[in-house]
């Protein structure tokens, strides 16, 4: 509604990009949907950013005032250079090229990998993918400043700040889920430079304010607060009230994911 104020939520998922405004009551006031041009297994993250910026501009063009922004996205690995631009193609969750490297990590680290990171070795993890790139594309790693998720990359484009949240960090298989910090032991064994891992902040924390450059693309006011955000499935589970141990949520979409809430990490070995 023109002249109204609220909070903007942006979700990049398997079925496309959605940008919606929520008013003071929390109810969804408007929703914009559009395709994601970067939805391939190996994709150009900048195309997704441009589409997200366009969707936000469609919202702001209606005259609403955005008080703050939160983003979610499906899982992907995005590497950026010092200038914040992609240093190589992004790798969507269904890119399984690093399956050999996942097997190598399993043989190298054994049960320790699952115990520390909370999940068994996977070709979807950034740990296996970085190991693969070290063999096949060392030039990409050589110009990489940040190892991010797609959601983190979009936050970086909006704010100029690189950061991630604990849930997203856990999917990299480089994160100690009990200590809630990057695992120096796992990171070293995987051959990942610690310097490319972003700071880990709570999903509800302030990542930063919208930059002048992002404001010109999106129509947002410079300085508009942007939250750290989280993965789409985890955020969706939180949104439907999965906040107490014992609750299970089925997130049905492009994939079907079951999330069960516990009060402590449960190792999968």
Overview of this protein structure:
The protein has 269 residues and is an alpha+beta fold. It has helices at residues 45-60, 99-109, 111-117, 126-136, 138-142, 150-159, 166-170, 184-190, 212-218, 232-239, and strands at residues 5-13, 16-22, 28-34, 42-43, 65-73, 76-80, 90-92, 146-149, 175-176, 181-182, 206-209, 225-227, 230-231, 248-252, 256-260. It has one domain (5-260): 2-Layer Sandwich (Nucleotidyltransferase, domain 5), CATH 3.30.420.40. It contains 10 helices and 15 strands. A hairpin with a 2-residue loop joins strand 1 and strand 2 (16-22).
Core attributes:
10 helices, four-stranded antiparallel beta sheet, five-stranded mixed beta sheet, about 270 residues, globular, Nucleotidyltransferase, domain 5, alpha+beta
Strands, count: 15
Shape label: globular
**Oligomeric nature of the chains:** single chain
Tally of helical runs: 10
List SSEs in N-to-C order. Answer: EEEEHEEEHHHHEHHEEHEHEEHEE
CATH architecture: 2-Layer Sandwich
Round the mean pLDDT to the nearest integer and report it: 91
CATH-level-4 superfamily name:
ATPase, nucleotide binding domain
Topology (SSEs and partners):
Blueprint: E1 5-13, E2 16-22, E3 28-34, E4 42-43, H1 45-60, E5 65-73, E6 76-80, E7 90-92, H2 99-109, H3 111-117, H4 126-136, H5 138-142, E8 146-149, H6 150-159, H7 166-170, E9 175-176, E10 181-182, H8 184-190, E11 206-209, H9 212-218, E12 225-227, E13 230-231, H10 232-239, E14 248-252, E15 256-260
Parallel strand pairs: 1-5, 5-13
Antiparallel strand pairs: 1-2, 2-3, 4-7, 6-7, 6-8, 9-10, 11-12, 14-15
